[in-house]
Amino acid sequence: MYNALTLYYTDDQDWQPEVCPITLPNGTFYNLNTWAPFLVGDAARVYDEFKRYSIELRTLIARCMADRQEDRPSLQELIDIIRVNIGGGDSAAVDAQRQFDDEKLVDPTKEKPPVDVTRPPPVEDDELLLRFFREYLREPPVREDPYRDYWDE
What we know:
- By secondary structure, this protein is mostly helical.
- The protein has helices spanning 2-6, 37-40, 48-51, 55-64, 75-106, 126-138, and strands spanning 18-23, 29-34.
- It has one domain (2-138).
- It has a two-stranded antiparallel sheet.
- It is globular and about 55 Å long.
């Protein structure tokens, strides 16, 4: 999940898990020993590029990267979370398209605003998902690792 979120990976032998306070889905607080402290750790340590993602998503990924297996979400919990979020995203996409269609009736020259692919969109429609697939999976970007100075050579 880290690779999917960041499009980076590391083989740094000194990279170790850290204890981070998180809020579990049931609202309880927990000190999670995770390999992803840069997603949910102390706010000053969370990388800016990840702050644009919801704390719920970052916490879920940090839980998936928990050092202890019993701290990781079950497969059923992941499936349930995915179903809820896909349903919510689909509803939001339908509502956004309906609103755009209504506005287009009033002003036929109206165009959809360009999507800033460097930020997670409020609504993921099929067109955007196809674009992501094309640009990041079929022809992935070649990017320098912004964390290269943190990894040991």
